[in-house]
Amino acid sequence: MQTTSSFGRALLAFSLLCFTGLSGPAVAQGSGTLSSGGPTTGMTAVPTSVAHRPQQRHNPMRIATLRWYDVNQAGVSFDVGSFAYGIAFDGDHMWVTNTGDGTVSQLRASDGQLIDTHPAGDSPAGIAYDGGNLWIVSVVAGDDVLLKLRASDGQQLDAIPVGDHAAGIAFDGVRLWVTNGFAATMTVINAADGSVVTTLPTGAGPSAPIFDGERVWIANAFDHTIQAFRASDQQLVGTYPVSNNPANLAFDGKHIWVASFDDSVVERRLAKNGLFVDSIPVGLGAAGMTFDGESMWVSCYMDESVYKISVRSGTPAGPFASGPQPIGMAFDGSAVWVVNQTGTVTKR
Fold first, then answer.
1. Predicted confidence band at 181 (pLDDT cuts at 50, 70, 90)?
2. Which segments of the chain does DSSP mark as H helices, in order?
3. Distance CA 84, CA 215 (A)
4. If exposure means fewest CB atoms within 10 Å of the residue's CB, which of 9, 108, 138, 316 is most exposed?
5. What pLDDT is stored for residue 74 in this prediction?
6. Are 261 and 286 in contact (CB under 8 A)?
7. What angle do CA 137, 142, 144 make, to 5 degrees?
């Protein structure tokens, strides 16, 4: 049961990423910076460390295929809704949940054009795509639910009850995994018919589920652990202590990456056994991550930047400018998208 306002839920949902709370100045930083519409520059200034970097040579083919990360330091931003949160790619469009106004924005991935804005409950958060439908964690009439929307037209098809303060979601090809942050549980749902398979106990403050092909991993923000569950039978495989306040997870084909909001680092661990590999420093408030096939991208909420880390060497590049309060991230096969909670998405 959820009794908080939509904006209150948004703050509580984000508290799973930084449970020490959003400070007043951090929220105020983004005010008054949104454009009236259409593409805008993500930031008006580039950090000194970037502005004074020696000129680099760039592969023209990377620019031609929109892999222009090092060429365009700021990216191009597009307006979405209030308190933007989660993002998913359906092959043609980027879908962005707007927790503050109860909608999901549908943008054409090729040019960022807003195609439509669909209702998505009272405060949508996590979002996943299953090949035909969008699944969005939200609230309807005070209850936490998982909404099913048809991707072709945004029509709502179902609303499935989940646990207290649900926020994160992952799809394993058959089932949907929804983390219930304040209940310390995870609800597993059959995507074919919406039936609940099971509800699993987790660590404290679960969020950010991901699927590695065999296991589903979650981050437990309140007890500083990650957990792995075997997807086939939902059995717990292991629990591993990590850096403080793990905010997000990503998979590169071999490693699980853990973004630590409080420690401003990203850990790499072997997916096969959870063993620690290394810890890589990034900017303040590591929050979102996405893998582009070569590099891991990390959004840093507190200093409004993103970092690019070579998967091969573990060497970080950045900071690159982003919009205010960057959080969710996704890769569309050509470009990296960053959700800025103040109501824009930046395409790099």
1. very high
2. 6-15, 24-28, 48-51, 60-64
3. 28
4. 108
5. 55
6. yes
7. 25
Identify the DSSP state of 53.
Answer: S
Q: Report the distance separating Cα 339 and Cα 126, nearest Å.
A: 12
Per DSSP, the three-state class of 129 is: strand
Q: Which fold has domain 6-347?
A: Methylamine Dehydrogenase; Chain H (2.130.10)
Q: What are the boundaries of each domain within the chain?
A: 6-347
Quick check: 271 and 309 in contact, CB under 8 A?
no
- If phi over 0 gives left and psi between -120 and 50 gives alpha, with beta otherwise, what is residue 258? beta
Work out the number of other CB atoms within 10 angstroms of the CB of residue 154.
18
CA dihedral (278, 332, 17, 123) in degrees, to 10, reads -170
Cβ proximity of 309 and 318 under 8 Å? no
Cβ neighbourhood burial of 17 (10 Å; 0-12, 13-18, 19+): buried
Q: Stretch 4-18: mean pLDDT, rounded? A: 45
Buried b (16+ CB within 10 A) or exposed e, 182-208: bbbbbbbbebeeeeeeebbebbebbbb
Alpha-carbon distance of 335 to 325, in angstroms, equals 19
pTM confidence score = 0.82
Give tens-digit pLDDT for 68-85: 444 455 579 999 999 999
29 three-class SS:
coil
Residues 129 and 106: beta-carbon distance below 8 Å: no
- What the block records as the tokens of 39 is 């593409």
Task: State the amino acid at position 279 in one-letter form.
Answer: S
Q: Which amino acid is at 329?
A: M
Q: Which strand (E) or helix (H) includes residue 138? A: strand 133-140
